[in-house]
Task: structure prediction
Amino acid sequence: MFTGIVEALGEISRIERADDSARICIVSEELDLSDVKLGDSIAVSGPCLTVIDFANDSFTVDVSGETLARTTIGSKKLGSSVNLEKALRLSDRLGGHLVSGHVDGVGSILARNVLEDYVQFRIEAPPDLAKYIAAKGSIALDGVSLTVNSIGPNNFDLMIIPHTLERTTMGSLQVGGLVNLEIDLVARYLERLFNQGDATESAGVSLSDLQQAGFGEK
Result:
C-alpha cells in the first residue's frame, strides 16, 4: 500500500525488453534507498513494482507484459521522469489516501490551463472508470494523490498547486499526454456492497445501514 505522496523523482536509465516483459533501471539521487531490500515494493508513476536489484542511487524492477500493456510504463523511454514512492509502513503518516499501486486504467489530458501559479488539468477517463470518480473525492494520477475539483460525463478537473507541479511529473504534463489512473478504493468496495442485495443483508450490512452512515441517498 502507498499514500500517493511522492517521495522523489527518478529517471529511467536502462530498459531491457524481452518478448512479453521488460527490466527497467531507475536512477534517483533524491530517494532514500538505505532501507530498501530485495523484494520490496516501490510505486513507479502509479504501478507497484518489485525491486530485484539496487545500488546507492538506483534500483531495478521487472515489469510484466500485463503492466506494460495496461499502464503508461510500456511507453516510457530512456530519460523519462517518473514519480517514486516506497511502500507504506504502518507507522507512517497517511498524508494522501490509501493507494494500492494497481492501476485501473489510463486517462488522457484534454486541457491544461495556467492560473497564476496553479495549473488546472482536465482529464478524460475511460467510461468504465468515470462512474467511480466523484467531485471532492480522491484519485491517484501517476501515483500522486489528488482531489477531484469537478466532474463531467467522462472527464474530471484537477487544480494542481505549485509544490506538486515542482516535486512530481505533473509539471511536465501536456495536452494529449497519457496518465495512469487509480480510483479510490472506497468506491470499489461501496459498489460491491450496493450490488450484493440480499447477500449483503445476510452478511450484516444493508443498503439502509450504508445510507444511515452517509453513503448514497436516503
Observations:
- The two ends are 33 Å apart (CA to CA).
